[in-house]
Amino acid sequence: MATKLTIRVNELVHRVSASRDTPLLYVLRNELHLIGPRFGCGLAQCGACSVLLDRKEIRSCVTPVAAATGKSITTLEGLPALWASERGRAAAAPELHPLQQAWIDVGVPQCGYCQNGMLVQAADLLSTNKNPTEDQIRVAMNGHLCRCGTYPKILTAIKQAAAAMAKERAR
Amino acid sequence: MTGPISEKEFSRKAFLQGGGALLVGFSLRRAGLASGASAAAPGAPLPISADQVDSYLTVHADNTVTLYSSIMERGQGTRTSLLMIAAEELDIGMVQISHAPLDTSTTPFTGLAGGSQGATIGGSFVRAAAASAKQALLGLASAKLGVPVARLSVDKGTVSGGGKSVTYGELVGGKVFDVTIPQKVQRNDLGVFQHLLRPGLEPGESPAKPVDQYKLVGKPQPRVDVPGIVTGTLAYSGDVRLPGMVHGRVVRPRGQSSLLHSRTTYGPYGTNYALELLAGGGQAVLSVDESSIRHIPGARVVQVANFVGVVAPNEWDAIKAAAELKVQWAEPSTPLPGNGNLERALRAAEPGLRASTPIPGPVSPLLITEMGDVETGLAQAAKTVSATFRTAYLLHGPTGPHNAVADVTPTGSTIYHQCGPNYGLAAQGVAQAIGVPQASVREISYQGSSFYGGHSTDQDCPTAAAVLSKAVGKPVRVQFMRCDDMGYDNYDGAEVIDVRAGVDANGQITAFEYVAYSQEDVAQPPSAINTGGVYLIPNRKVLSNTAPRLFMTAPLRSPMDRGPAFSTEQIIDELAYATGSDPLEFRRRNMTGNHAWLRVLDEVAKAANWQPGRAAAKLSDAKVVTGRGFGFGTHAYGGGLQGPGLDFRTLDPTTPAAAIADIEVNKKTGKIRVKHVYAAVAPGLVINPERVADQVIGTAVIGTSQALIEEVTFSRSNVTSLDWVTYPSLRFKDSPNVTPIVIQQLDAVPGGAGEEPISALFPAIANAFFDATGVRMRQVPMKPAVVRDTLARAVLKEARSTKFGARR
Known about the structure:
The complex is a heterodimer of chains A (about 170) and B (about 800).
Chain A: E1 2-9, E2 12-19, H1 24-31, E3 50-53, E4 56-59, E5 72-74, H2 79-86, H3 98-106, H4 115-128, H5 134-141, H6 151-170
Helix pairs in contact in A: 3-6
Chain B: H1 12-18, E1 57-59, E2 65-67, H2 78-90, E3 97-99, E4 102-103, H3 118-145, E5 153-155, E6 158-161, E7 164-167, H4 168-172, E8 183-187, E9 195-199, H5 226-231, E10 246-250, H6 273-278, E11 285-289, E12 300-304, E13 307-312, H7 315-324, E14 326-329, H8 342-347, E15 366-371, H9 374-380, E16 383-390, E17 403-409, E18 412-417, H10 425-434, E19 441-445, H11 460-472, E20 476-479, H12 482-487, E21 495-503, E22 509-518, H13 529-533, E23 539-546, H14 562-578, H15 583-590, H16 595-608, E24 624-633, E25 657-666, E26 672-681, H17 689-708, E27 737-742, H18 756-773, H19 784-807
Parallel strand pairs in B: 2-3, 10-20, 18-19, 22-23, 26-27
Antiparallel strand pairs in B: 1-2, 4-19, 5-6, 6-7, 8-9, 10-13, 11-14, 12-13, 15-23, 16-21, 17-18, 17-20, 21-22, 24-25, 25-26
């Protein structure tokens, strides 16, 4: 039964109409028209649907929308503003999150379908571990599946983003 | 090239009066229906005519260009490569050109985006169109500026000469070229296997620009679509939403059953399973209990023959309805052999069974090549080796299962999805399913999750959406769920391969025999190159047997290359070992002298710092041992097929690949870790080197995944690989590091570059396993249980032979 729910996504508050058990993914995509999070398996096995819930990566394909109320949801689209707020800058026209910039500079994506989850998980990783080792990156990213084989370039891009963020923070 | 640029505006009326024969393909290019394309002259359609510049290029008044081709971006950067080729020929900047969406109402055929031929064949079309356009533009500029063509120069679409200048946009913006492109006989690619008269210029071929004047091509360019991907602004097929659209799901048994007695014809394009169900194939529907979903708001069941689907206004409701709908199916009409009995099923190949290739399909057994006499060669050998190799069914497994929106109306229908390599093919299936002429079905394609290969569910899903849309009279979006995608994919065929070979006292290969058994409707039999064609072997025979059809199959990235390379390149290594040789030195000694193959061997050896020596020279009793191995591989486009104008014994241009794998084997757990892959490719002229390097990295990772853990499993009744637990795929922790080596050959035509390292890697890992353990690996995937079993058998065999030797 559809009910009215309030969710906070990318710092905006939305009133949505959905049954409480609807996975967050379908609300984000069909009600809010956010296309960063994607359907991959619906089983929390691949990570294409990942978003940040209070800055921790979750699988939106199995997270009921009701469980996200009262919390802060960040999607791929919200990463630039997240980075701006981390640095205490205004989010009027935020520049890309350093991870997104590194993804472009390194040329990570192939088909790109999984990269939403990769970026979201990497943002979670770098918010708790500012300078991860290669092994730490591999462990943190292990739950995300890429069928194009972009893992080696993701490793490079995360290290590059971590360095860029450290440099930016030191400014 | 004929005709000057027409100053007249094309009008729909003028076109319709011009000739009815072209009506089927008439263009609505400027009707503004396709998002992204600039509307130069709304309402003015153009015919899609293969020899007209206007079919491929539109120059706008603002001095930008829109390119039209049938090459879908499938994650390999091919669209960017095509834009580079066009921009290079036109002398415009990359920011001045974009690619139009793929739309059957506006898109000309420029070859298939299959077999990694997008940049080769698609590129030749685009080069021919752009070079012809450039000639015409120079002619116009000359007339306008009163300066001879020879004294004109072009920079960023501005033609200058005699102190004056004019832009392309000023010359033809919003107008049509009406210029004919010279045509020539070109090889067609996957699916048709013919040589056809069509537009095409190779790099540097007049009037195309000389290769030494290239400014863009051959230098790394970022992909144009990457910023949209990382910011969540690039719309994929799954993001299409139409007004009034409802959500649909298919309801099927979990996992396909045997297709031995299928109702529909099948071919290299795979099976459209929705059509199979509509024709009464698949498992018969005994009953559907509509009351089981009555509690779901607006949910509705649609059943046509054995096709069952549900629709609901809300997507989550549609998912629940599909999961909760009670359907009873009959048992499959034919049992499956079960994974354990696969070899016996494949060996049941029947003479006369036809592999379903396009023009007249080869009949089993198919002799791929034969020279000399294998028995004579074996008799001359000082040492002989023989072995049987086994590979598994693999699935395409895109990260995102296929999805499609179909809008079926009485006046015409449109499907929105991610097309396979054959753009327009899904429209054909839809037309058949809903009983309308194909010309009334428009197919618009978006980027999506890549499934790398021929056809997975890219016909099935839009057909299902169209059946549902027709039934409910609304646009319907069908998202295949994970189990629909994996359970009803067209798989890559498993193989059983027997190989015998011999080497003489001088270390020269004397004989090689390759006999394969496979359900071989995967578009092509094994190529003559991957089965010993790289070597000088006086007595050689390659034979392929077609096994009865177990599953739907279609090409998967590097189809019918894995088994041939896995077996052949291990046997070559065994011959090297038998003669006490270094595996690379042995290969060089026996190779045909083909420059490109020697080049990839030398380059990969150099990158990996290969130390010559006999394999398995440093065996140890340690629990975890390491090894290094080498392998060659390629993908031969059409190599091995019969058909008009095509001799399957001639080797089509191929891209050689060589791989070296460094691996670690845990003898106790049986786990293999591929630590590092060095892979070299020589694809001829490389349009965009970094993007080709991406392909080498990607194929190294996916090749590792396939070789180590990927396998479609099945019971006696249905496929049981239905998610990422039952069909594991390599993850971050186990990903190799990769050193890609891309060899630039400016004097060669561009070749494919999206698949070759996969087949080279299979034997490289297996040869590394031998180097590490002294034991041969005869089957893939090399799962831990297979590794433990292989090692245990070797120990047993060793013990037996020692005992036997002692008794003697």
